[in-house]
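Q: Predict the assembly, please.
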Amino acid sequence: MLKTAILAALCVFVCFGGNWLWGQTMIERPLVVGMITGLIFGDIRTGIMMGASLEAIFMGAVDIGGALSAEPVTATVLATTFSIILNVNQKAALAIAVPIGVFAAFISMFMKNVVMNIFAPVVDKVAASDNQKGLIWTHFGMWFLNYFVFSLVTFFSILAGAKPVQHLVSAIPQNLMAGLSATGGLLPAVGFAILMRMLWSKKLSPFYFLGFILTAYLQLPSVAVAAIGIIIVVLQWQRDKQIMDIENKQVALKSQSAVVTNTNANEMEQEEEDFFS
Amino acid sequence: MKLTKNVSPEDREMINSIFWRSFTVFASRAGATKAHAPGFMYSILPAINRYYKDDKKAQAEALSRHTTWYNITQNVGTFVMGLVASMEKKNSEDPDFDTDSIVALKTSLMGPLSGIGDSIFWGVLRVIAAGIGISLASQGSIFGPILFLIIYNVPAILTRYYLTYMGFTLGDTFISDMYKSGSMQLLNKAASTLGLMMIGCMTASMVTFKSKLSIPITGGKPILIQTYLDQLWKGLVPLVVTLGCYWLLSKKVNVNWILLGVLVLAIVLGLLGVV
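A: Predicted assembly structure:
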């Protein structure tokens, strides 16, 4: 189990740390993490399929506006490891992954926002003394420390938690298991809701339902829906651009005619005054 | 592209260096007060070293300026890096230059740039990439994760590259011009439209619910509740649950409570024998 724990911790370090060391290239998303974990534990197919299910659940796990959402890397590595090494039912492993993700997000935030505060004065110091080598060491040293410590969570979870989890899963009654399986189906709703918060407006909301209907009733694959979406966006853009140009022209015309009417009004006033005098 | 051609070889070398360094910008996080300041400082070192070549004191001053809180969506953040490089250049040439304006401009751009960056890269591009990736990966195909990475990263890295140049050459007038001309508004609308359609598509395909409840009929086949639900509206439960979560979120309920709430709901349904 020690070897499994080390390998799983390595997966977390490579995917999570690597993602942030190299441009947030999305290698921390469950789709990729599942594949890499599967590759390391010798069952890439299970890894990819677990990754697909977890991606749907954690798709909306984005820290927007400071709200703490679940951390997908630890969750994916642990769920995939449990599923491959301990032969835990895939759907049950998914359900276990969610509380783990929430817990891991808490530790991650604690590391980044509390522990790493120690280094804030160091950053000020290297800047004030123009110690550029020091800055580079601080920058990359902090990276290593943060993700090394964080991957220990996975290490100890596997080391201590594998046996209890196995016992727990084998003791789950059938009804509860059905419920756990159902969570895998319903949880992505939360993720999509978070994404909708980012994009939703009353005027654009019909497009959400259009996407839904195209898939639910016409069974179109996602590539087709994306293509239809792009066509709509292009048409919409052209129309909006036209309207915008017309409006701009009108504004320009108005400001011109405003000058003209002003002089007209003056003449009118003049005439009226003449009349009444 | 025209943008990169009009730049002198020395400038180009510096901008490219900033571009490559920008990949590490979020590697460290110096607590809640500085966030990704060290990464930003590391990324613009080429500019600082170039414009304050032999002046250690000016270098230290420039670095100290940039120890303030920094956080922008990575792929659009390079615009600010290019912009800061051009402003540091002006500062090194003009002794009366107000250095506070560098930090002020940088800070003021974080909100709008992240707003547009988050919705385009996180809300749309990643969602489309993941949607395509998931549909392949759920059948166990390795093309799932690979396509996901390609679809996301090619546009993301190109944006990162060109925006570094644009920040340096077009400078601070560009963003305000975008807002004034209304193209920022159009971009936002386009991103939201496409994003919402994809989320609708994924609500239908990835949020799943199947009831096994049935009403027994004496002397006939039992009626399955799920068939009724499907006749009423396909994917009724997933749609209602998703909209319910959205409603709770807009009422400022913590995400984790909603996650746990859905978890409990599903387990209770399981215990009751509904699913």
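Chain A touches chain B through 113 residues (CB under 8 Å). Chain A has a mean pLDDT of 84.
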